[in-house]
Amino acid sequence: MKLNKLSKILWAAMLLGVMQAAPAALKIQITQGVDGALPIAVVPFDTSKLSSKLPIDIAQIVSSDLNRSGVLKALDKAKLPANPHYSNQVKYARWKTAKQDYLVVGRVLEKSPGVYEIQFQLLDVLKQKQLLGRSMPTKKRNLRSRAHQISDFIYEQITGTPGAFNTRIAYVRAQKNAARKYVLQVSDTDGFNAQNVLESDEPIMSPSWSPDGKSLAYVSFEKKRAEIFIQHLATARRSKVAGFRGLNSAPSWSPDGKFLALVLSKDGSPDIYTLNTATKRLKRLTSHRAIDTEPVWSADGKSIIFTSDRAGSPQIYEVGVNGGKPKRLTFEGRYNSAASLSPDGKFIVIVHAEQGQYRIAQFERATGNLTVLTDSSLDESPSFSPNGKMVLYASTRGSNGFLFAVSIDGRAKHKLSDQAGDIREPVWGPFKSK
User: Fold this and answer.
1) I need a surface site. Which of 120, 135, 213, 215 has the fewest CB within 10 A?
2) Residue 25, in any domain of the structure
């Protein structure tokens, strides 16, 4: 396999999960907006009738969510021409003059101590009519989730596509204090409400969400060797599902949640297997002297897409869940790896290398067209949002890793930034169960 030095380092990192790090606290930074995004104003919600101040600013969360979509651009709060809280208080001419297409007004009422009702309306400024109105009961601890739900409702009403703001992401953060620590964390999509799933002195890698969002599969080196675990998030209960001799890596859930695809080297070179999570029965899908790794399931659950260097450099292949001869999918460039499929199965995002630059690209399955989405030099671990409109990925800046999200057309990008640290292996979770 003729790979340059950087390619070899990246290839090894994908298999071994080597990370260096420092503490990090996530926060959102918009790094690239979209010309032509639809203008929308979100007026601060009325909280004057509450007995105490809310711990969050609902309108600010909604504005930030919509800004990150790349489709909508929220008006800066300092530029709001008025502060109505009900539709009958709106003077539409003011908002037309402010060049806003949409307007959101709302209020928070207190039903009992710690129990609220959030009311909001989405208004079409040009047509001077209400498009959406909802009343949402909530407890204090769920206020932030409710704010993200409001963003989802607004986004879907305007675009026709479900919003994915009220979902979660998982990632690995490495810390370097007196001793290096690796932390598997789960947070809201804006980086808030981060919760530790596992802390270890040894590397953690390859988190994978179960389809119901209740569990994570991951690789842990806590016993000085790679083992695969499934952990239930609500109870922290976990079980080891693969600890064979050699490599145990890259778990990926099937769409029905009954199987894991994974990489094992117990029979020689790293190959793709499936594991029935109930019976623990293994099925080998590939058998090749090359490295087969990073399996993900097709949308219909009938095939596995994976990375292999069997042609001399990393490329994307597909094999049926019953085995057979793998089919090569990517041919453009000498390095394509780390596939993630869109929910509809039409697109695959990958790490694509050209002239030593490792960037996130989108591959259209029907045409074979490849579109590069990012412009940095060392991007990795792409993961589609559950609505298929954004891609979460990690990117190295200096010696640290940061999380970014980019729209599927590459026009909008935002960074989940940190003050100092190394954050890797992001994966976007599914829609929350209703």
Assistant:
1) 135
2) no
Rounded-to-integer distance, Cα 204 and Cα 217, Å: 11
192, 180 Cβ separation under 8 angstroms: no
What's the CA gap between 298 and 255, in Å, rounded?
8
Same domain, 144 and 182: no
User: How is residue 344 written in tokens?
Assistant: 């509809």
Q: How far apart are CA 228 and CA 221, in angstroms?
A: 9
Largest CA distance in the chain: 72
pLDDT greater than 70 at residue 73: yes
Copy the structure tokens of residue 158. Answer: 């305007």
Q: Check whether residue 232 and residue 373 sit in a common domain.
A: yes
User: What's the DSSP call for residue 429?
Assistant: P
Q: Which of 383, 374, 419, 25 is nearest to 169 (CA)?
A: 383
Q: Are 254 and 260 in contact (CB under 8 A)?
A: yes
β-pair partners for 91 = none
What is the H or E stretch that residue 266 is in?
none
Rounded Cα distance between 316 and 272, Å, is: 13
The span from the CA of 149 to the CA of 191, in Å, is: 16
**Distance from C-alpha of 170 to C-alpha of 152, rounded to nearest angstrom:** 20
> Which pLDDT value is given to residue 88?
97
For residues 183 and 231, what is the distance between their CA atoms, to the nearest angstrom?
Answer: 14
Q: Which two tokens stand for residue 195?
A: 């919760």
Query: 269, 253 in Cβ contact below 8 A?
Result: no
Kindly report the three-state secondary structure assignment for every residue of 106-131: EEEEEEECCEEEEEEEEEECCCCEEE
The β-bridge partners of 396 are: 401
CATH number reported for the structural domain that contains residue 402 in this entry = 2.120.10.30
pLDDT tens digits for 9-52?
344 444 433 333 333 445 556 566 666 899 999 999 999 999 99
Contacts of 241 (CB under 8 A, 6+ apart): 217, 228, 229, 230, 251, 260, 275, 277, 280
Token look-up 């994915």 returns 164
Nearest to 155 by CA among 165, 145, 146: 165
Domain tally, the chain = 2
- pTM, to two decimals: 0.90
Boundary of a domain, candidates 106, 136, 159: 159
User: How long is the chain?
Assistant: 434
